Amino acid sequence: MWPFILWLEALMNTLDYTCVFGVDYQDARTKFLDSADRVAGRITTYRHPDETGPSGEELAIDVARLGSADAPRQLVIISGTHGLEGLSGSASQVAWLHTIAADALPPDTSVLLVHALNPWGFAHGSRTTENNVDLNRNFVDHSERYPENTGFSEFAPHMLPQDWTPQAFDQLNRAIADYCEAHGADAQFDALTRGQYDHPQAINFGGSKREWSNLTLEAIAREHLGAAQKIGFIDWHTGIGEWGESFFLCFNSDGSPEQDQAVKWWGEARILGQRPLGLQRPNYQGLVFSGLSAFLGERPMVGAVVEFGTRGREMRRALQLDIWLKFRARGDSPKIRMLREDMHDAFVPVSSSWRERTSAQAVTITDEALKGLSNW
């Protein structure tokens, strides 16, 4: 362990976090495109047809290809599924681009970097899309009956108070505590976070149709992954885990060959028996992982959502604040600005230590996936 810690500290000292983290979506996008260009990445841009940024700027998903499009092994790395978390995910992509040479990839392996999968949320400082949809719950069959989550109805009436006060937040806390007492902590965590399709002004809403980002990811898979026979996957997120430390959520089936590969890439301790916040992992619905896997058909995909920890169980308050700012906040008072800054810091801490540590870990995690994929 000590050699790894020393190596990580050395890498942290070589990465200037101000060069890899953007201050906002536009700055992060520029850093990503410039970094991809430095290593001869080929860029494809998917512009949002309807939405713009806060100042009217273009919103887009940018895709950078490194290596041959005909490579049988391809690693897909996604940032910005949860909007504003993309400041960290983009930095993870850019940090890796800063450390790799243009000709460093194995001849049968390529990398596809998908930047800002949810560009509206990224630019407007929200986890959700322009429709308050959690994109990581949107990849379900919208022509079928939606997955049920009756437990969420216990929390929904308390999600969106008229005013943001400690007393209003306590109402949700009491509802959660009552549910936990009646059904247990694991069941409460599952009901709150697995995804829900009945309350469009609450957290973890999976939508009533496929979002533009969902449709665009399918187009990306069709246009860029046609030759891929084996696919690796990383989706960068923030929130779950110890502060500044990576936490893996691998959604390959238990005991499957793909899960075995993930263990080879990243280690048993990271992949098996994951307990986010010390609780049983929820039965998440509509994940990007599931959607991309479906787009690929029978071709095997190995990978994980990789979180970088921030505030632990306090993140629930930040999730609620996100929707409150969207639906209840009026004007730009000092209180509103303070709440918005606090929410942003909950998802992407401004701490230089957090940013240096997470970007260095991202480089290591990406290299481990690339090595594992090339040996698969």
Describe this structure in words.
With 376 residues, the protein is of the alpha/beta class. It has a single domain, classed as Zn peptidases (Aminopeptidase, 3-Layer(aba) Sandwich). The chain has helices spanning 2-14, 17-20, 25-38, 86-99, 119-124, 166-183, 185-193, 212-224, 257-266, 268-271, 288-295, 315-327, 334-347, 352-375, and strands spanning 42-52, 58-66, 73-78, 109-115, 230-243, 246-249, 301-309. A seven-stranded mixed beta sheet has the order 1-2-4-3-5-7-6, with helices on both faces. A hairpin with a 5-residue loop joins strand 1 (42-52) and strand 2. Helix 3 (25-38) runs parallel beside helix 4 (86-99), helix 4 packs across helix 14 (352-375) and helix 9 crosses helix 14 (352-375). The protein is globular.
Q: What is the CATH class name?
A: Alpha Beta
Q: Radius of gyration from the CA trace?
A: 20 Å
Shape: globular
- Identify the CATH homologous superfamily: Zn peptidases
Number of structural domains: 1
The fraction of residues in strands falls at: 15-25%
How does the major sheet shape up? Answer: 7 strands, mixed
Supply the number of helical segments.
14
Q: Structural class of the secondary elements?
A: alpha/beta
Unreliable spans:
none
Give the integer mean of the pLDDT values. 95
Tell me how many strands there are.
7
